[in-house]
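Support request from a user on the community tier.

User writes: "When I paste my structure tokens into the form, the page sometimes reloads and wipes my input. The last time it worked, I copied everything first. Here is what I submitted, just in case something in the input itself triggers the reload:"
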């Protein structure tokens, strides 16, 4: 079966600054191996992307290494209005962190409304805003009319509040991750730190609610957040799990189990990301999958530099066979064929 090259609007490729975890080449290789030909990378680098200079440096690094189409988001702690104006033409949106996560890149909620007023763009503001903070966010959206995307919705209470806001006509979209769709709190017993991320895994009731309302969630976003095995085994493990290699096989498996349709998968991983973030379509990028092929996820076959997955040992049905990027075969039968830098930074200088 042939499908369009998929779009992942939420990845952390760690480059520059933490390339021992991932870099633009290994991260975008994991994207291709997983059937994604476009990724949009988050700004919580070691030195967060809050200035034009840092964004330019990041784009230049990506140009040398990427093997798929890549774009970026700007970041803010509420103190960079001029830099946001300079960065705006080169990004797909502004990402703000309102809850604690990797890298202490956290804004005070009192500054939120102010930042909304700096951001003059039509491009969405993406929010890491969990249950406690959602009512504040939605009241600012109501007041300002600014378009927001709530990232990685994981709890029943969050999604129900968002769905209500959507029904009221607020300009809100939301995404869900593969780990919140396929894992629950009980998996932490087996996986330990390798199942720790933000937002944390939900209970069965949360997971069931996400699946029940899958037709009302706009996008599937991987939140690919690689950390090394050593870091995860340390006494202070960082939050986050890698996903790019495994998202599509897990979703194809859900299709084989009749929990999802191909039509919905393509809406959530292609049509809606494209529309919400205004991502140009490359008609010469597509993916060949064998939806009948079964295999077991193993660490050694992953392209991500961190070489582990919370889904190790899972039997999946549906395999990526070949990926064509802009007319060139870039992945075939398990091998990356593209050279570093052969992918394209979508918005560049
Ligand atoms: O678990 C997470 N890890 N959640 C986030 O929001 C950030 C990410 C990271 O950068 O490691
Ligand atoms: Zn994230």
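"...and here is what came back when it finally went through:"
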């Amino acid at each position: 079966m042939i499908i369009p090259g998929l779009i992942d609007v939420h990845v952390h490729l760690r480059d520059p600054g933490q390339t021992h975890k991932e870099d633009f080449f290994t991260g975008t290789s994991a994207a291709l191996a997983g059937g994604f030909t476009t990724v949009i990378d988050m700004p919580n680098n070691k030195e967060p992307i809050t200035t034009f200079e840092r964004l330019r440096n990041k784009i230049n690094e990506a140009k040398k290494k990427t093997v798929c189409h890549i774009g970026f988001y700007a970041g803010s702690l509420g103190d960079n209005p001029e830099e946001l104006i300079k960065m705006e033409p080169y990004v797909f949106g502004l990402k703000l962190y309102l809850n604690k996560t990797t890298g202490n890149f956290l804004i005070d909620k009192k500054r939120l409304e102010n930042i909304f007023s700096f951001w003059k763009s039509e491009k969405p503001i993406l929010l890491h805003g969990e249950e406690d903070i959602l009512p504040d966010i939605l009241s600012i959206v109501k007041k300002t009319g600014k378009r927001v995307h709530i990232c990685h919705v994981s709890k029943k209470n969050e999604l129900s509040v968002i769905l209500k806001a959507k029904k009221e006509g607020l300009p809100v979209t939301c995404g869900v991750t593969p780990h919140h769709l396929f894992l629950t709190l009980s998996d932490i017993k087996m996986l330990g730190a390798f199942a720790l991320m933000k937002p944390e895994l939900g209970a069965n009731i949360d997971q069931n609610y996400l699946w029940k309302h899958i037709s009302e969630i706009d996008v599937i976003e991987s939140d690919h957040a690689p950390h090394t095995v050593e870091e995860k085994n340390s006494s202070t493990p960082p939050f986050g799990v890698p996903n790019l290699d495994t998202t599509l096989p897990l979703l194809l498996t859900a299709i084989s189990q009749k929990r999802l349709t191909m039509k919905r998968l393509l809406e959530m991983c292609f049509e809606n990301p494209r529309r919400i973030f205004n991502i140009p379509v490359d008609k010469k990028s597509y993916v060949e999958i064998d939806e009948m092929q079964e295999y077991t996820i193993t660490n050694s076959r992953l392209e991500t530099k961190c070489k582990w997955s919370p889904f190790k040992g899972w039997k999946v049905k549906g395999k990526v066979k070949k990926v064509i990027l802009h007319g060139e075969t870039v992945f075939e039968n398990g091998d990356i064929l593209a050279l570093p830098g052969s992918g394209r930074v979508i918005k560049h200088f």
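Agent notes: The reload is a front-end session timeout and is unrelated to the input. The mean pLDDT is 97. The pocket of zinc ion (ligand 2) is lined by residues 10, 12, 42, 223, 225 (CB under 6 Å). Escalated to web team.
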